[in-house]
Amino acid sequence: MRAAFRGTLFPALASRCHVSPCPNPLTKPLIPLRSVSDTLPYRLLCSSSASAPPPPPLPPMADENTSSTSPSAAPGINSSASVEKQFEGFRSLLDESGTIRERIRSVVMEMESAVRIMHSGLLLVHQSLPVPEVLEKPRAQIGVLKELYRRLADILRECPGQYYRYHGDWRSETQSVVSLIAFLHYLETGTLLLHAEAEEKLGLDASNFGLDIEDYLTGLCFMSNEMPRYVVNQVTAGDYDCPRKVLKFLTDLHASFRMLNLRNDFLRKKFDGMKYDLRRVEEVYYDVKIRGLMAEDTTKDQKTEA
């Protein structure tokens, strides 16, 4: 009876579910799959038959003949030409500046040679030689330096307003020149070489090609470095009055530098070294005085000045 019922009921269910009878009666029947029309949205199904909207029109292609003269391309061409023109001007300026520096350097090399000759002549003053004979050779180099500075002025006259642009090319040599002519001036007169006198000796003009103030002051600091050695050698040679003169000279110079508001730069460092030169001269003067080597009239003159 059960077999007959199974044989009549299961084929009817299988026909309704559109599946074949399952050979295993214990397994569950398969769920029928939906058709494609059931899974797709209704709007897509409806629009499949309708005509699709036309695509947006493409922009017209630019003509090759008109693209080069279009307003958008003109600024790019103009900017490229202006940049090229600018750097072309830079190239010419740099070439001109390099030529001027080469000419200045050739003059500075001759200046260095004159400074070495002048310095070697002044070093003989530390020996027991007559001062006029020693100063004759260094004095002759002042005329050479004057001519070299005239050549520098002629070069800078070709590029007015560019003095401090090329000033560093001869700055150290100028400081050495000032120190030498200041020391030479002291040996001749016993006084300080003024700024205007230094310009006159070198043939410089403050309006066109003058002597920089910092170079002048730095040269004076270099000159003070020679004073302690000069004092010691003069005392050794028997000139016991030299320490008093040099001490007064350096004391006045150091006091004059105190009036300046020097910042922490190269000039300030050189000025700080001047106090050590002054201290060494003071020690030599003290030794000479304590040993009674100074003349009595010299001591009285010093007390009167004090």
TrEMBL record:
CDD domains: Translin. The keyword Chloroplast does not apply. GO terms for biological process: RNA metabolic process. Residues 48-78 are annotated as: Disordered. Gene3D superfamilies: Translin, domain 1, Translin, domain 2. Residues 64-78 have a biased composition (Polar residues). It is found in: Cytoplasm; Nucleus. The keyword Cytoplasm applies. One of its GO terms (molecular function) is RNA binding. Pfam families: Translin. Keywords: Cytoplasm, DNA-binding, Nucleus, RNA-binding. SUPFAM superfamilies: Translin. Belongs to the translin family. This is Translin. The lineage of its organism: Eukaryota, Viridiplantae, Streptophyta, Embryophyta, Tracheophyta.
